[in-house]
Amino acid sequence: MKKLTAMFLALMLILSLCACGDKDVSGTVTPQESQTGAASTVEEPEAEFQLGVTTGGKYENKFLGIGCSLDDSWTFASQEELAQMVGTTADMFDDEKYAEQMKNIDMFYDMYAAADEGLVTINVVIQNLGVLYGAAISEEKFIELSLEGLDEQLGSAGFVLQGNEVGTMTFAGEERTALHISCTYQDVPYYCQQIIIKQGEYMSIITLASFYEDNTASMVDYFYAVG
Fold first, then answer.
1. What is the strand order of the sheet 202-211 is part of?
2. Residue 24, helix vs strand vs coil
3. Which secondary structure element, helix H or strand E, spans residue 135, and what is its range?
C-alpha cells in the first residue's frame, strides 16, 4: 500500500518540480494577468490563506473554494500521514537531484484519500509560490512550465508517458485549467486528471488518479463549491 501511495503522489508532485525549477519567467505574464490570463482593471482583496478541514467523509477548503464528499469506501489520510508524504514520495526517485528538490520544495499535502485498496486516489497539494512566482505565474503558465520536463521527471519516478492533454474543465462550479495524463508503471495503465487552482501566491494541484481504467471523470463529481 505504501508503494502505491508513493507512486500516485510522485506523479502529482512532478508538476511542481517542473514548474518551479530554475525558470526565468520574466516578461512572460504580468501580475494583473496572473489570475485570469487577461489584464484586469479591478483589484480584489486577497482571501486569507487557510488549510482545509476533513470531517467524516467530507473535505472542505474555503480558501480554495472547494469541497469533496466521499462515501465509506474511501479512507482519508490523517494529519500525521499527510506530513510524512513528501519524504515517502522522494524516496522513489532514482535521480538524487529530483529527490532533493522534492524534499526542499515549499509545498504540502492538504488532503489525500484512497479507495479500492489504493487503486484510485484523490489528493490536494498546495504550494506557496512566493511573491515573485505568485505574481508571475498563472494557472496556464504553471501547466506550460510543468510540461517542459514532464517526460524526464516521469521516467525518473518509473513512469512511461503515453499522452497528455491540456484544456479547461468545470470543477466545483468554476472553469479551471486542467491536465489529463495517461502513462504506464511497470506496464500497468495509469490515468491522472489534474486541476489547477491559483489563489494569491498559492497554487493548488488537485489530482484524481486511477490504475487499470480511467475513472477520473467520475471523480470530478465528488467535488462541489464552498462559499
1. 75-76, 107-115, 120-128, 202-211, 188-199, 174-185, 159-171
2. coil
3. helix 130-136
149's grid cell: 520536463
Q: How far apart are CA 146 and CA 71, in angstroms?
A: 33
User: How far is Cα 184 from Cα 160, in angstroms, rounded to an integer?
Assistant: 5
Q: At residue 28, what are phi and psi to the nearest 5 degrees?
A: -85, -30
What are the cell numbers at 121? 486516489
Its pTM stands at: 0.78
pLDDT at 44: 52
For residues 89-118, b (16+ Cβ closer than 10 Å) or e, as one string?
bbebbeeeebbebbeebebebbbbbbbeeb
What's the mean pLDDT in 82-92? 62
What would the pLDDT profile of 117-132 be if each residue is shown by its tens digit? 888 999 898 888 876 6
Among 55-59, 100-104, 143-147, 200-204, the least confident range: 100-104
pLDDT of residue 36: 38
